[in-house]
Amino acid sequence: MTRLQVRAAVLSLFAVFLLASPALAEERWRIDFETGAAFSGYNDVRIPGDTGTKFSLTDDLSSDPVFYWRLRADFRLAPRHVISGLVAPLEIDSEGAFDRPVLFQDVTFPAGVPTTGRYVFNSYRVTYRYEPVRTENWLFGFGATLKVRDAVTSLSAGDLFAEKTNVGLVPLINFKLERRLGDRASFLLEGDALAAPQGRAEDIFAGVLVHANDNWSVKAGYRILEGGADNDEVYTFALIHYAAVGVVVRF
What is the chain written as a DSSP string? Predict the structure, then answer.
């Protein structure tokens, strides 16, 4: 799947949402806009996975916190059935110099030379969730997510440049738990996660919703994004911490 096909699929998804029947009952929609700062925990790379040099975009090079945003649209098909779409771009740059030669994508980057690394992990997801528990104080649901991963890792130093791109489909398990904390607040735990012999992925948010009224809330909390793959083609594992704030609108 090419990046152009990824963008076309994302636009098609949101077009389907926006063209949903206007005759449906109110409060079928939930729009969640999140932003804040993203911090690299670890970001280890070896490409090719069996012959490249293992290096770190956070230890061998260094990166600063970056601004991020993500947008989710939920559509309630029925009282206990929800479909949603998520757009979650992420790009982190690193700078520094290696203390040893690094072989990356069959290009050798020498030690002691100023080097720039670029890590892109754009995520586009479609989720179906079943919510068997929906009471005044509790909401719990689980389902399945299909993620389109659009990833790029690159190094550049002077005239040297190498880049590894990867676009693929990843199935994940989705879950959501919400607990009412009085009239004006709720605790929220939600995410997508799955582990397999080929790799793992977790994207989990924990935080608090403060409800201004029945139609909109503000949120704040912590998000963790972690995972990667280990095979002959690539070895990549990253951990990203997020300080997250956002707005949730229901209609």
Answer: --HHHHHHHHHHHHHHHHTS-TTSPSS-EEEEEEEEEEEEEEEEEESSTTTS--EETTTTEE---EEEEEEEEEEEEETTEEEEEEEE--EEEEEE--SS-EEETTEEEPTTS-EEEEEEEEEEEEEEEEEEEE-SSEEEEEEEEEEEEEEEEEEEETTEEEEEEEEEEEEEEEEEEEEE-SSSEEEEEEEEEEEETTEEEEEEEEEEEEESSSSEEEEEEEEEEEEEEESSS-EEEEEEEEEEEEEEEE-
Q: Which residues of the chain have pLDDT under 50?
A: 14, 16-26
Q: Residue 60 belongs to a domain with what CATH number?
A: 2.40.128.90
pLDDT for the residue numbered 26: 47
Q: Supply the pLDDT for residue 23.
A: 33
Listed residue (137, 151, 115, 143) closest to 3, CA to CA: 151
pTM attached to this predicted model: 0.88
Burial category of 226 from C-beta neighbours within 10 Å (exposed 0-12, middle 13-18, buried 19 and up): middle
- Enclosing domain of residue 145: 3-19+27-250
pLDDT, one tens digit per residue, over 101-153 is 999 999 999 999 999 999 999 999 999 999 999 999 999 999 999 999 999 99
Total tally of structural domains belonging to the chain:
1
